Amino acid sequence: MARVGILSLGLLLAGQLAAQSECSNDEDNLLSWLRANGGYAHIHVENVTVDALRGVVAATDVKEGDSLALLPDDLIIEMGTQRHSSAENAAVLLGKQTKDAQWHNRMSRYWDGLPGMNSGLLCRHLFTEHEAAMLQSESMKEEIEQDQEHLRQVFHGTAKWWETLLGLGPRASLVKELGVQHNVTLQAFAHAACLVGAYAFACQRGTWPFHYSAICLLPVMDMLNHRAGNASNAIVDQNKNGSYSCHAKRAIQAGEEVTQTYSQVTSRMDHSLLQYGFVEEHGEPLLAAVDSATGFEHEDDSLYGKHAHLTGPEELKRLQGILESLETTEEQDRALLTDARRRGDGREEDILRFRIQRKVALKQMIERLQRGLVMRQASSSARQEL
Ligand SMILES: *[C@@H]1O[C@H](CO)[C@@H](O)[C@H](O)[C@H]1NC(C)=O
Ligand SMILES: *[C@@H]1O[C@H](CO)[C@@H](O)[C@H](O)[C@H]1NC(C)=O
Ligand SMILES: *[C@@H]1O[C@H](CO)[C@@H](O)[C@H](O)[C@H]1NC(C)=O
Ligand SMILES: *[C@@H]1O[C@H](CO)[C@@H](O)[C@H](O)[C@H]1NC(C)=O
C-alpha cells in the first residue's frame, strides 16, 4: 500500500511521467484505474516528437464527434477558485492530500503519473536566476521574481503588512494547510505550484442551482498536448452531470496524436513559456506579449492593421529598438539551440526557442510595417502628381 499523508507527497512530486521508457506499465495502471472508476480512454501514451516529448495518440480510428475519453465527476480534483494563484492552489491540493488519506490513496495512480522533480518541468516558479536572465527581457524577469516572491509568501504563510491590512494576503498557505511542522521543501512546493499552473483546468462544481467555478485537475484529460486553434483535433468539455468528455473535432486515425487548445493566451509565446513551459513553433509567430503594443489582451496581431498609430513610424521605431537591444541575434540563438539539443538540456532549449520565435516575430512585424509605410508614401506621392 502506498504511504499516505505528508510522506506520500513524495509520490506526487516524484512521479515518473518524464521517464519515458517505462510508460506502458504506468499507462496500463492509469487506464485500468480510470475504467475501474467508471471512465474510459481510447488512447495510448507515446513519444510524439523526436525530442521524446510525451503525448497521447488515438488507440482506434474515431469519427468526428466521437468520444475519446470520459472522466467521472468523482475523479476530478478540485482546488481553489479562479482567484487563487497556482501557488495557493498547490497549497490547497497538498492540504487535501494530507487531510484525506483515503482519497489520496485512491488517487495514487494519478499522482504516480505526474512529472517528478527531475523531469525538467519549467514554468515561472522554477526559473533559476540564470534562466530568467537568459530570457533577454527585463519585464519577464520581473514577473518571475514577483511570482517567486508570492510563492515564498504562500509557503511561509506571510504577507506584507499592507497586504494584511487590505485583506490581500495569500488566500491559502502551506503552513495553514499542513501546520508549521510540515517538511515540504520550498523547491518541492515550487514544483507543485508549477505543475498545478500547467495542468489545471477551469471547471464548474456543485449541483444545480448551486454551481460555482473552481480550478481542477482532470486526470488523463491533462495528458493531451496543446495545438493552437484549428491545428488541434479534440476538445475537452464538461458534461451536464459534471463529468468530463474528450471529443474528436474531426476524424482521427489510430496512432495519430490527439491534441487540444489549452487557452487563448498560449498564442503569446512568453505566456506559454512562463505558464506551461513550452513554445509552439509557428511559421508566422505572433509578437510576444512583452513586445506587442496590445499585450496579452488580443489573441492575434490583427490590431496592427486596424489602428493608424500601430502602423506608423513610431511603432516601427519602437519594435526596431527592441530587436536591436537584444543581446544575441537569431542566428546566434540558433547555434546555441543546436548546442543545447546536443547536451540534452530541455529547459535551455525552451528558452532559446522562445528567443528565436520572439526575434522572428519582431522581424516579421518590422517588415510588415516597413512595407505599409512604403505603400503609403507611394500612394500619397501618386496623389500629389494627380
Ligand atoms: C521514448 O523516448 C525515450 C527517451 O528518449 C526512450 O527511452 C524510449 O524508448 C522512447 N519510447 C518509444 C516507445 O519510442
Ligand atoms: C515529514 O514530517 C512527518 C510529520 O509531519 C514525519 O512523520 C516524516 O518522517 C517527515 N519526513 C521526512 C522525510 O522528514
Ligand atoms: C478554422 O477552420 C474553420 C472551419 O474549417 C475555418 O472557417 C477557419 O477559417 C479556420 N481558422 C483558421 C485560423 O485557420
Ligand atoms: C454523464 O454524462 C456523460 C455524457 O453525457 C455520460 O457519458 C455519462 O455516462 C454520465 N455519467 C453518469 C454517472 O450519469
UniProtKB/TrEMBL annotation:
Query: What PROSITE patterns does the entry give?
Result: SET
UniProt xrefs under CDD domains: SET_LSMT
Q: Say which domain of life the source belongs to.
A: Eukaryota
**Which InterPro entries does the record match to this protein?**
Rubisco_LSMT_subst-bd_sf (IPR036464), SET_dom (IPR001214), SET_dom_sf (IPR046341), SETD3_SETD6_MTase (IPR050600)
Does the record bear Chaperone in its keywords? no
Q: Which UniProt keywords apply?
A: Methyltransferase, S-adenosyl-L-methionine, Signal, Transferase
MF terms from GO for this chain are: protein-lysine N-methyltransferase activity
Q: What does the record list as GO biological process?
A: methylation
Cleavable signal peptide: 1-19
Enumerate the spans annotated as SET domain. 46-263
Pfam families associated with the record? SET (PF00856)
Identify this protein by name. SET domain-containing protein
Protein's organism? Coccomyxa viridis
